[in-house]
Design a protein that fits this description.
This protein is an alpha/beta fold. Helix 5 links the parallel strand 4 and strand 5.
């Protein structure tokens, strides 16, 4: 397993990419998961590019952003090209998106149809660049359950549509993460790792709270201290061939990430210690 650091973790920190990369390299991270907002801000900073990152012994494992699947086709395709260009510029092969912004049980039929059509178009454009589109398993999107995620993969039916498997959100849906991982394993290319102190605190990960500098962080805990048993998950699932990101949104960034990365390094299958 190749472990990545998410730049979104530092959304409220005053830190350069050089500082972040040096710290990540020194703390057992092999790659960087680049947030789309950060990729946009770096587009005109010529010093920072894929070659610069490679010289530091690291790479962008995934570019994570969002795209509106309810736009008109011209606007959607324009947004898709921008995302794919940013992904290409970092010599990255994975683009993470959300499957809309409504849950599978409430998404209107016409939006579901358009989601499938647009995902097919996005995957075709991505394939031409050698990029895979990864839909994240996430609440309040169409990929909010095992059933709806499998349906979406089947309906789109494109080899360049894959999954970013967020273990906690799969557990949040009521599914067994181990069983879900085994059922979806052929389509999983990346894994998100985070935990929560108890199920009743899952709301702390709502986007509106996470992206607020003054939002609550109550319930965010290090990976092996939460209600979800990650030791069991790692024992039962083979992640050796995958990239995984520690997705930390809480406080004490450096201490928590360094500790979790060290614990993960002690597990069999982590690429670098």
């Amino acid at each position: 397993m190749n472990l990545s650091l998410c730049t979104i973790t530092f959304r409220h920190e005053l830190l350069s990419l050089a500082e972040l990369t040096d710290w990540a390299r020194a703390n057992r991270f092999a790659g960087i998961e680049m947030w789309g907002g950060h990729a946009r801000s770096l587009k005109h900073r010529e010093i920072y590019d894929a070659d610069w990152l490679k010289a530091k012994g690291m790479y962008v494992s995934m570019l994570s952003d969002y795209i509106d699947f309810t736009k008109c086709e011209a606007d959607f395709l324009s947004a898709a090209e921008e995302l794919l260009e940013m992904t290409t510029n970092w010599n990255c092969k994975k683009l993470r998106v959300f499957a809309g912004s409504k849950g599978s049980d409430v998404m209107p039929f016409h939006e579901r149809v358009q989601l499938v059509i647009y995902l097919k178009q996005l995957c075709a454009l991505a394939e031409a660049r050698g990029i895979y589109v990864l839909v994240e398993t996430h609440p309040n999107t169409f990929a909010d359950s095992l059933r709806s995620t499998q349906w979406l993969l089947d309906e789109v039916g494109h080899d360049h549509l894959r999954l970013n498997f967020d273990v906690l959100h799969v557990w949040e849906s009521g599914a067994d993460p181990v069983e879900a991982f085994h059922k979806l394993e052929a389509q999983i290319m990346h894994v998100h790792l985070k935990n929560v102190s108890e199920r009743s605190k899952l709301g702390v990960f709502a986007p509106g709270n996470v992206y607020s500098a003054s939002g609550s962080r109550e319930g965010m805990v290090s990976l092996f201290d939460g209600e979800l048993d990650f030791q069991h998950f790692f024992d039962a699932c083979d992640l050796e061939h995958l990239d995984a990101s520690l997705e930390w949104f809480g406080r004490d960034i450096y201490a928590v990430l360094a500790s979790d990365a060290a614990k993960l390094a002690s597990l069999r299958g982590l690429a670098r210690c």
